[in-house]
Amino acid sequence: MPILFNDQTKEFHLYNQAISYIMTVLPNGQLGQLYYGKKIRHNASFSHLLEQRPRPLSACTFEGNMSFSLEHIRQEYPCYGTGDFKYPAYEILQQNGSDITEFEYVSHQIYKGKPALIDKMPSTYVESDEEATTLEITLKDALIQTELVLTYTIYEERPVITRHATFKHLGQEEVTLTNAMSMAVDFPDYNYEMIELTGAWSRERYVKHRKLEHGIQSVYSMRGASSSNYNPFLALKRPQTTENSGEVYGFSLVYSGNFLAQAEVHTYGTTRVMMGLHPNRFNWVLKQGDVFQTPEVVMVYSEDGLNGMSQTYHELYRTRLCRGYWRDRVRPILVNNWEATYFDFNEDKIVSIAKDAKELGIELFVLDDGWFGNREDDTVGLGDWYVKNFDKLPNGIAGLANRVTDLGIKFGLWFEPEMVNKNSDLYRAHPDWILTTPNRGACHGRHQFVLDFSRKEVVDYIYEAMAKVLSEAPISYVKWDMNRNITECFSAVASAKDQGKVFHKYILGVYDLYDRLTTEFPEILFESCASGGSRFDPGMLYYAPQTWTSDDTDAVERLKIQYGTSMVYPISSMGSHVSAIPNHQLYRNAPLSTRANVAYFGTFGYELDLNKLTEAEKNEVKQQVAFFKEYRETIFNGTFYRLLSPFEGNETCWMIVSQDQKTALVGYYRPLNEVNVGFRRVKLQGLNPDLKYTVSINETTNYGDELMNAGLITSDGSCGENKAPYDGTNGDYQSRIYLLKAE
Asked: What one-character-per-residue DSSP string does 187-198 give?
């Protein structure tokens, strides 16, 4: 069993073939952190790893003992106010105004398997209890009669530990939880660089590095969603760590709302990493018998660089976070009408695009915004999930869906269930259903307001409306959008002391709606979306196995967006499409081949008017669709490697290797042309060194060890008029796909 407890020393050792995580019960009953990193052999005692010695002016726990100060001892789930002056993992406000707590070890249990979280909160899981072992440590503050249960699960075959905390209030007097992180880890030094994924709408998840320095370095969201500004992820890597070697620690929060992730470097050179719910606007009153559980954090350790960390997240999230009918199935190639028609469409126009889609081999047509209520622009109709404009859709959604499916392709539909326009039947009937503060103005975004999903009756209404549409028409795909964040977070029905619950209860309402719909319609493929990638997080993947990666569909910009997203999220989760040119966000005219070569590394589809393509373009699309169908199993299930970063130069390169290592796809991109440059090579990864691979484009045959050590020639020094050959139809200096097949 990969969790050992030494009863004499009261030490816990979580381990597998890759990692060790060691902690101890301290003399004051709290938990101390001893080691986290590469696996080390078990020892009868690790007490020598506990760092304590007298320091001047320290606040010490025991009278007469000048060595035991919580300011200097690394802790497992620290509190504030009893000697430790760093940021705490939790705070509990009591009736007398104090927030001092003393949670002391009471007991623990170790068992096979992994528990689910309460309140339908998403989390990773196991299919067999033999896959993982769980440790639950119970601590108690006797004065306020509250229990704290820290839960750790270690996977047998993965360098993964998951963590969350549970508060159980047993006392008669109410207490208020004002801060509840999911985890904390104290590291003994700060020789790290912090990696974050940051950006904004249309430039989501850019990779940022910064060297840790004294003080706080953090990423966060207070927008009601995980946001495009910061992703609920951070990593600490050693300065010498690269994509393929070196030590890195990853932390990923399985949650879709407000969060805080921070690294605090103490003046004595230690580092505290914490991650969980953002404490701003969070106050959770606990009455006797109440339980509050934090979201789950997934911690990954890699000694094989950033690719090693990412590959662990990819495989775990693809197979043990995503669930249901579509988890292990390749996804259909789709065409979405948004950039083709926007709001200007009718039934015949949609069917004409669907006909072309069928002829080109596309498998799914998705009707985007504009089908419901009196929706002719973005000022009206949200919340009215039924057809009112029968001039546009004379036979309703069911009639249109049947016409499309009769062509031999599937039909999908767009919803924005969390939002409402004031010009809607729903708002006129229930003006108090939006989040807004009484007697004050309310911000709008895109002319819309946020429904109060912390209220069950609101979620119930939206569920009934959506379920009616989905049950009456042959719909196989739902794009779930969310186009604005929460401002003026106030619920009309919550008491004053419960307003601090609204942000979290809102997300629980979103999860509840997802849970009901995916349970009732298990074979519908859900894709989450939030103005593109503003809610691309692990919590969403639990309910929707793919996410629209960004509204920015420009191929060159997508290099950075998809590269950064791959730091945590599997390729199978990235919605990536070929869109129209000039691009609707940047007005760039990228060749059709370049647009496809980027979009292949995702779920793949089209975001344009197929009726407007020339015959030559249609023939090229047919070839693209056929190519993706032939290799999408490798793209979906393969191992992904980042080779050249778009954040570091004019070249981007990545690759996917099939599980049997017999097939690989290498994407090489050079957005800016260069004249008369030298030969360049990229060293490939993940191949079988003993297999011979035929490389498309130049049709050479190379052993895997040659391609990984001598490299693949990606630039031959040609001038513009002598472009290097391309594996498809049109020569294009901007991008190439190299196909490697083992003999």
From this structure: ES----EEEEEE
